[in-house]
Each structure stands twice: as C-alpha cells, then as structure tokens.
Amino acid sequence: MSREYLFHPPGAETSAKPKFDAETEEEHSHEKWIENLRERVIAIYPELEDIDLSVLFLDPKNHEQDIRGSHMVPDSEETHGINIDMGGELQLKLAKAKRPVSVEIAAKLIGIAPEHLTSEVFNTFVFLHEYGHAHDFVTHYQNAEESKSLSTNQIADIWRNEYTQYRSKLPIPNMGTSELIETLSKQSLLEFLKTRPVTSARLKTANLKTAQEVINAQDAAYRSMPAEKYADEFAASFIKKHLPEIVEDTEKSR
Description:
This protein has a 4-stranded mixed β-sheet, with helices on one face. Helix 1 (25-44) runs antiparallel to helix 11 (243-253), helix 3 runs parallel beside helix 9 (211-223) and helix 3 (100-110) crosses helix 10 (226-241). The model is unreliable at 11-24 (pLDDT under 50). The chain has 11 helices and 4 strands. The protein has one domain (3-249). Helix content is 56%, strand content 9%. It is α+β, with helices and mostly antiparallel strands. It is globular.
C-alpha cells in the first residue's frame, strides 16, 4: 500500500488530507527518516521552512510508478510546495529503465557508479533536488532585489516564463521527460511524430530512431536546463557535505 506523508509550515491551514499516521514500525521509520532529512535541510536553509511537503512512499510491489518529484511555485492559487514519490529497489529499477540519463547524472554528481546507486540514495537525491528548485526560487526570484515591488503572481510568472523558454528548446519542445515517457507508452514514436514534421526532421538529422533514444536525448537536454542543473548541484552538494548524517538516518530507517 502506498503511504502519504504531509508536512505543513508553521501556522499553515491544515490540509483536507490527514497527516500520515504510522501503523507499523517500518512505516514509522520511513516517516522519521523523511522528518530528519527535512529538518537537516531547514537547519541550513531556514528560508525553506515554509515549503509545503508531500511525500508518497510507493508500494514496494508497484510495477508502474518510479521515483520522482515535482516543485510548485507559489501564486494566488497555490502554496509553495514539493511533491515526492519515493520507492524501493523495484522503483529504482524502473527509473533506471525509463530515465537512465537522469539516474546516471545523479550518480555521477554524487560520485558513485550508477550500478552502486541504491533506492535510498536516489530517494535522497530526488528529495533534495526538489528542495534545490525551492531554494533557487526563494533566493533568485522571491527574495531578489528586483522582485520587491512585484506581486506573488508576477514572481511566479517570471519563473514559469523562463522555464517555458528553456523547455521550448528541447528536442521535443515544451514537453518534460516524464510527460514524453507517458506519451510514448501509449503510442508509437512514428504515430507521435506524424503531427510534428519539424520535430521529426530534427530527430532524423540527429539520427535518433527509437523511442528510448529520443527519451534519452530529451532527458539529457532537460537536465542541462539552468534550473535543473541548479537543483541537481544543490542535491549533490548537500549529500556530499552531510553524507555521514544521511547514512546514519538511513541505517536507522531500515
């Protein structure tokens, strides 16, 4: 069974969903591990305390969903939040099969071989990657000198517009890797490209013939976007600096 953990900043309104209550010792360990990691981040970056965090720990037998995360910038309708789908070795195996480039980049930045990457380390990297996005937004957008006279919506629009501009330059324009993977799981690459002649010609020039080759090229380009590189480097730097504490917390959660 999948379990969800919800953390809200001090004084925030309670979500309609209840906070996860551990039913077994193993589930309690997962919850405690997440709490400890979040507290370590906030202790160093107190400006991130107000970030809403929702963590879904996937069923270990789930053969469809892999480890991933998302970051939502705040506006008049949304709070600043992070969503993480955490999983075990099966979900890591799925990630390696679907998004090998992302997994290899994470391993390289941390300084380990991809084959030695464990689900615990990858969960940690994805968790910190999303906090890296939050740190980027708070530091370089929300708290920037030029943002002082802007509304929350205006700041969010600046972030989204910049992100959209970079996405428009991807091999498959305006589509994230996860969205592309989902799309190509429902139709062939040939069918997908029928209505995209310009993109089709570009892929042909790049000699990308299979769906996985296109996904890999898309993921490599996506990970090279400034916002993604910032988040990746934030995660890797944090892991390297605080590896002993992270390992200790991981051992306690087993």
